[in-house]
Amino acid sequence: MKRIETGIYSTTTVGGENVRAYVPHPLPPAPPLDLTGHRQRLLERATLAVGRLDSVSALLPDPHLFLYAYVRREAVLSSQIEGTQSSLSDLLLFELEEVPGAPFDDVVEVSNYIAALEHGMARLKEEFPLSNRLLREMHAHLMSRGRGSDKAPGEFRRSQNWIGGTRPGNARFVPPPPQEVEQCMASLEQFLHEDTSGMPILIKAALAHVQFETIHPFLDGNGRLGRLLIALLLYHGGLLSQPLLYLSLYLKQHRSVYYDLLDTVRAQGDWEAWVDFFLEGVEETALGAVQTARRLVALFETDTRRTQEGGRGAANALRVLTALRQRPMLSLKQLCQSTAMNFQTASKAMQLLVTSGIARELTGQRRNRIFVYDAYLAILNEGGEPL
C-alpha cells in the first residue's frame, strides 16, 4: 500500500549547502497496516518458525553453548554488512588474545558487537526497560574501541549525517536534522512501550527497525544497533526465551533489496512490502537456526561416540571434546585451565582428537599451539565469508 505522506522534509544547511533532511512521522503508520490475506499467512508462518526455534533451543543439551557460538556468528555477519573483512575464525583468535594476520579494527568491531548485545540482554533480564537509555548504553559498548570510538559513543548525534554519497548534498538518504533526533527517538520509545493495540511483536519489530534506521540517531553504528534492536524486541516481547533470531545473514544475502525497501517506505509509505520481506526473512532465518541447532547436536553425538570408542585415554579425550564444544578454538594453555588437566595429559588427549580427525592444530607451532573443532566451526561459518 502506498501512503501519500510518511514524513516531512526539513531544509537544513550543511557545509554551506541547503539539504532536505527527512523527518519520519511517529509510528504506527497511517492508515494502519494491511495484515490480511497472504500477509496474515506470512505472519503465522513466521511466528510458528520462531516458536519452533524457541522449542529447539530449550531441548539442546546446553543451550548456552549454542547461544555462545550463534551470537558470535551473528556479530561477524552483522559487521560484514557494514564492510568489515573479519571472519568467525578471526574473532575466535582475537578472543584467545592471538590475532595473527587478523584485521585488528575489524575484529574489535565484531567483539564490541558481542559486548553490546550481552549488555543489552543483561539489562533486560534485570527488568530494565527497552528504552533509549538502554540503546545509548549499548551504543557505548558497540563503539567503545577501534573504528568509530571517536564518534560520540552512547550519545545521540549533534550533527547531520547521511547515507551514501560523499556529502549530504549528493547522499542517497539524509536522516532528520540533529535537533529533531531527540523527539523522533522519544516517539519511537513510546511506540516500543505501547501495548494496548495488540500489534504482534514481529510486526512491531519490523516497523521499529525501519524507523530506527530512518532516524539514524548516532554518528556511527546505526545499522548494527538497528539489527540488535530486532533481537531485543523479540526477547523482550516474550517471543523468544533466548536471543537466537538474527536476520543479518538474510539481509547480507539480499542487501540491495533491503536498502531498496527502506527507501520505498520513506518515499512511498509502502510498509507492507517491507513487512512481507521481513516476515519471509524471519521464517527463513528461524528455520535455518533450527536446522543448525539440530546439525550441531548430531555432530556432538557422533563425535562423542567416536571418542568413547577410542580406547585408552578416551575419558580425557571426552573432557577435551567437551571443552571444544564450549569454545571451538582453544590453546593448550586455556584447555588446561578449563579442564584442570596438566599440560602433558591435555596434550595427549588433544592429540587423540587430532588423530581421529575431530580437532586440528591451527598454528603449526611447537609452543602456544591452538586447536580448532573443524566440523563445528564449518557449520557456523556457512554464509559467513566476508563480502
Entry keywords:
387 residues; Arc Repressor Mutant, subunit A; two-stranded antiparallel ribbon; 7% strand; globular
Write down the Rg.
23 Å
Biggest β-sheet: count, sense, barrel? Answer: 3 strands, antiparallel
Query: How many helices?
Result: 15
Q: What is the oligomer described by this structure?
A: single chain
What structural class results from the helix and strand content?
Answer: mainly alpha
CATH class of the largest domain: Mainly Alpha
Structure write-up:
By secondary structure, the protein is mainly α. It has 2 domains: 7-292, Orthogonal Bundle (Fic-like fold); 309-381, Orthogonal Bundle (Arc Repressor Mutant, subunit A). Helix content is 59%, strand content 7%. The chain contains 15 helices and 5 strands. The strands form 2 sheets. A 3-stranded antiparallel sheet has the order 3-5-4, sandwiched between helices. Helix 2 (63-81) crosses helix 4 (104-125) and helix 7 (201-215) runs antiparallel to helix 8 (222-236). The relative contact order is 0.14. The model has no long low-confidence stretch (mean pLDDT 89).
Short description:
This protein is mostly helical and 387 residues long. 59% of the residues lie in helices and 7% in strands.
Question: What is this structure's SSE topology?
Answer:
Elements: E1 7-14, E2 17-24, H1 38-59, H2 63-81, H3 88-95, H4 104-125, H5 132-142, H6 178-193, H7 201-215, H8 222-236, H9 248-253, H10 255-268, H11 271-308, H12 314-326, E3 329-331, H13 332-339, H14 343-355, E4 359-361, E5 370-373, H15 374-381
Antiparallel strand pairs: 1-2, 3-5, 4-5
Helix pairs in contact: 1-11, 2-4, 3-4, 4-5, 4-8, 6-7, 7-8, 7-11, 10-11, 11-12, 11-15, 12-14, 13-14
